[in-house]
Specification:
Blueprint lengths: L1 H90 L2 H28 L2 H30 L31 H9 L2
Helix pairs in contact: 1-2, 1-3
Length: about 200
């Protein structure tokens, strides 16, 4: 009878060991499942963010180049106009000089406005920086989660894991966009006029 009890105890202990092992496997699966699901969501977000950066940088650059080309064309016209003014003054055609001066003043005004367009387009650097920071944060979070998964797979405890280094604190608007959410000068001026 003691052999039967002894055998039952052995079977019971083996079943308890198997049950504990299964519990550990289930716990490990739960620890692995959540970071993998989050990783699966964040990698496409980071890729999308980097694609958005490339698209907006290209658009801003083309806008600046087009505007600079307009300015140089008008500057050529201003130079030519000034030479004509000299000639007309020498010939005493003052009415034509006044008309030409008005045209040149308009071109100078357009150049001024286009210079502001270029300055506005240069804001892409700030927006691009925010988008890159957002993508980097997503990738840093991904790195931490993958590190945890590897630790679990290697049988290490989460509290024994070395810290994954983070390069710097980042502040950003994840929705920063060059094409939307623009603030016009009129909106800014109206803020200052309200007293």
């Amino acid at each position: 009878m003691s052999e039967v009890l002894n055998l039952q105890d052995k079977i019971k202990n083996e079943l308890l060991d198997i049950s504990g092992t299964i519990s550990e496997i289930v716990d490990s699966y739960k620890q692995l499942h959540s970071p993998l699901v989050e990783t699966q969501k964040n990698v496409p977000k980071a890729t999308e963010q980097l694609d958005k950066i490339a698209e907006q940088t290209a658009a801003a650059t083309h806008r600046m180049l087009d505007t600079a080309e307009l300015i140089t064309q008008r500057e050529d016209e201003v130079i030519a106009g000034l030479n004509i003014i000299k000639e007309k003054i020498n010939n005493k055609n003052y009415d034509e000089v006044i008309e030409l001066c008005d045209d040149l003043a308009l071109k100078a005004s357009d150049n001024n406005n286009d210079a502001f367009v270029i300055m506005d387009a240069l804001q892409f650097q700030d927006i691009t920086s925010q988008q890159i920071d957002h993508a980097v944060v997503l990738l840093e979070e991904l790195e931490k989660k993958l590190h945890r998964i590897l630790a679990v797979l290697n049988g290490e405890d989460n509290k024994d894991l070395p810290e994954v280094s983070v390069s710097k604190k980042r502040a950003f608007d994840p929705h920063a966009d060059l094409f939307t959410n623009k603030t016009n000068q009129h909106d800014i001026d109206s803020l200052f006029s309200k007293k």
